[in-house]
Design goal:
Blueprint lengths: L1 H14 L4 H4 L1 E8 L10 E6 L5 E5 L5 E7 L2 E8 L5 E9 L4 E7 L8 E5 L4 E2 L7 E4 L1 H6 L17 E4 L13 E4 L8 E4 L2 E2 L21 E8 L12 E7 L7 E10 L18 E15 L3 E23 L1 H4 L2 E3 L5 E3 L7 H4 L14 E26 L2 E17 L5 E21 L2 E20 L17 E4 L12 E21 L2 E20 L4 E4 L2 H5 L5 E3 L11 E17 L2 E9 L6 E2 L5 E5 L4 E5 L11
Parallel strand pairs: 1-7, 6-8, 13-16, 26-29
Antiparallel strand pairs: 1-4, 2-3, 2-5, 5-6, 7-9, 10-15, 11-12, 13-14, 15-16, 17-18, 18-19, 19-22, 20-21, 22-23, 23-24, 24-25, 25-27, 27-28, 28-31, 29-30, 31-32, 31-33, 34-35
């Protein structure tokens, strides 16, 4: 019976979960006497400078001590032992996901003596959990960031590449794409206080204004690259974690505004010299306030931030010239081809503006114009920390963001309205059973909502619509700028994803050895709605075929088709991670992780599935997106 209980306890240990190493710091070290011998039974205190919360540890027979699951931030460390002077280290900063080494050399006490030392502890990187880099609060406050984008800072870490994929939108993302160690941008995991916040495309939650605000509310940013330790999952390239700031016993506040104006910018290479420089105005403003609600017990931190931006971008495209509108197309051999202009094509041809730039010699000329754009964004983050006792602390955080942007196509017949809503909420509770045993429970919800709608200018008559009851569609003509471009192909786009995440974990340390174990559960719901080609798309192989009204292809969606879907999926994980620091420069790390997951399921039966076998093919409605086959 006793053996059975021990076995069940071990199973429980193996399947409980936490991601606390992603959001907490590790402090370890040794206490020595003047001869370099270890001091056994020495007491080491770690006191948080902001909240005065105290953490205690005792050295083992080898003089070693370890603190796990410490909140990142500034600390005061103190080591004491009978018969020795008490030594204090101040201004010690601990970073999330990293281990710091605190070594004490205590002198023999001859009287009531106390030694104070101001020191920056060295960071260790022998553990696999610490492969990567990070940016601490001081650097976050001092780095000159264009737009103050939170996750863009990760591009300054080693093995990272920042690219703009020229696919701006909800599918390609609004911001820069981050690649680590050659991995794809959608293979990264983005977390805020341990909660996964990737959007429906697997990319960071960049708003419609082109950035992720809230850098003022972040204590530090850490990046861990593959290969990971067993505690990391749901990512193949890198895990980028942001740790939020907390309030303290002292009151702090700030206000800021960043202003950009075209008067301070050089002229763009593509701007027309004869025209005025395109306007650009950006105001980014906000602030923060933190302090105690109940001294030493309850603290708060709040950070609002907003953006207002107007800008014009120079765009150049090819458009039919005056001769082409009369059916006169120059040929490569120097002759001119007379093309009968179809009466069907004439009203669409009239929509193209005449060239205002150089002639291309093929019936087209360059048309340059300024595309007006505007963007606005409002963000707020709130955090509360409660110290119920020296063994029990809870942090609750919520952040909300709403952004909208508007731009137009080259011919300014479409206005593309993009809108995003982000909401993240989490609660994290830590139980200190003993200095060597800590339990952690985290629950969180993330919600990403993205919408894009192309609106047709009233100057385009409804008689030119390709489908009854629909707005004007898209014309693709080889050699010309698409009339409506690829964003107008989708008449209404919605990408929304909601994650409910639960984690529970335990961490145990003994001397130079540590054991972490855990499991977690995530329920995901994705709501895509892509009304593709509901307005119609006609493709022409050349300007000549367009003038003659001979389409190469047409893509049309049957009117009344329902594009909205609701996919649900469940994901879980369990891991065990063992580490033994054999020396200062050598760590043994062994771990195992298991991640079960279900196939995505369309809730309302809006999915056609096909099952293949040797006898026949069966088609049905509803069911999972795919069938998971387990082979022995």
């Amino acid at each position: 019976m006793k053996t059975s209980k021990l076995f069940l306890s071990f199973l429980f240990l193996c399947f409980i979960s936490c991601l606390h190493a992603q959001t907490a710091a590790l402090l370890e070290g040794i206490v020595l006497d003047p001869s370099g011998a270890a001091i056994s039974g020495a007491q080491v205190d770690a006191v948080e400078a902001n909240t005065m919360a105290e953490h205690f540890a005792q050295t083992d027979p080898h003089g070693r001590y370890t603190f796990v699951d410490l909140p990142p931030g500034p600390y005061r460390l103190q080591a004491s032992a009978p018969g020795f002077q008490t030594q204090t280290k101040t201004n010690v900063t601990l970073s999330a996901g990293e281990a710091a080494l605190g070594e004490f050399h205590l002198e023999v006490q001859t009287a009531a003596e106390h030694a104070d030392v101001v020191a920056q502890l060295p960071m260790l990187s022998a553990s696999a959990a610490q492969w990567g880099g990070g940016t601490e609060r001081e650097s976050l406050a001092q780095l000159p960031l264009n737009g103050r984008d939170l996750f863009e800072l990760a591009g300054s870490q080693q093995a990272s590449t920042v690219t703009n994929l020229n696919r701006v939108g909800f599918v390609g993302g609004f911001g820069a794409a981050l690649s680590f160690n050659g991995g794809r941008p959608n293979q990264n995991g983005f977390r805020i206080d341990g909660i996964q916040v990737n959007d429906a495309t697997g990319l960071p939650p960049i708003s419609a204004a082109g950035r992720l605000l809230g850098i003022e509310s972040i204590q530090e940013l850490s990046v861990v690259t593959s290969p990971f330790s067993a505690e990391y999952g749901r990512a193949a390239a890198a895990v980028i974690s942001a740790i939020s700031r907390s309030g303290g016993n002292d009151w702090h506040g700030s206000a800021f505004e960043y202003f950009r104006n075209d008067a301070l910018d050089a002229r763009n290479f593509f701007d027309v010299p004869a025209y005025e420089k395109p306007p650009f105005h950006r105001n980014q403003f906000g602030g923060m306030l933190s302090g105690p609600i109940i001294k030493n017990k309850l603290f708060f931190f709040v950070n609002p931030e907003s953006i207002r931006q107007t800008q014009a971008l120079t765009n150049t495209a090819n458009t039919p010239n005056a001769n082409a509108r009369n059916g006169l197309i120059p040929q490569a051999n120097g002759t001119t081809l007379q093309v009968p202009v179809s009466p069907v094509a004439q009203p669409y041809l009239a929509l193209f503006p005449l060239p205002n730039g150089p002639d291309n010699g093929d019936g087209t000329g360059q048309y340059t114009t300024e595309i007006p754009t505007s963007a606005s964004e409002n963000f707020v983050s709130v955090r509360a920390d409660a110290l119920f006792s020296p063994r029990w602390r809870t942090a609750v955080r919520g952040s909300f963001d709403h952004a909208a942007s508007d731009t137009q196509d080259t011919y300014q017949f479409y206005r593309f309205h993009n809108e995003t809503h982000y909401a993240y909420a989490s609660a994290d509770t830590h139980f200190l059973e003993s200095p060597s045993l800590i339990q952690d429970f985290r629950v969180g919800v993330s919600r990403n909502w993205n919408s894009a709608v192309p609106n047709v200018d009233p100057r385009v008559p409804s008689s030119l619509s390709f489908l009854p009851g629909q707005a004007f569609g898209v014309l693709q003509i080889t050699g010309l700028q698409d009339f409506g471009n690829n964003r107008a192909v989708i008449s209404d786009l919605l990408l929304a994803t909601t994650d409910a995440q639960f984690h529970y974990g335990i961490s145990y340390t003994h001397g130079s050895q540590s054991l972490e174990a855990g499991a977690g559960y995530t329920a995901t719901q994705t709501n895509p709605a892509l009304d593709v080609n509901t307005r119609g798309l006609y493709v022409f192989g050349s300007l000549t075929s367009f003038l003659s009204g001979q389409a190469l292809a047409a893509n049309l969606t049957i009117p009344g088709s329902l594009a909205a879907r609701t996919f649900t999926q469940q994901l879980g994980y369990g891991f065990v991670q063992y580490e033994n620091r054999l020396s200062r420069s050598l760590t043994l790390s062994v771990g195992v992780r298991y991640e079960p997951y279900s196939a995505p399921w369309e809730r309302n039966g809006g999915l056609a599935t096909m099952a293949f076998n040797a006898a026949n093919t069966i088609r049905g409605m509803g069911g999972p997106l795919c069938t998971l086959i387990h082979r022995n």
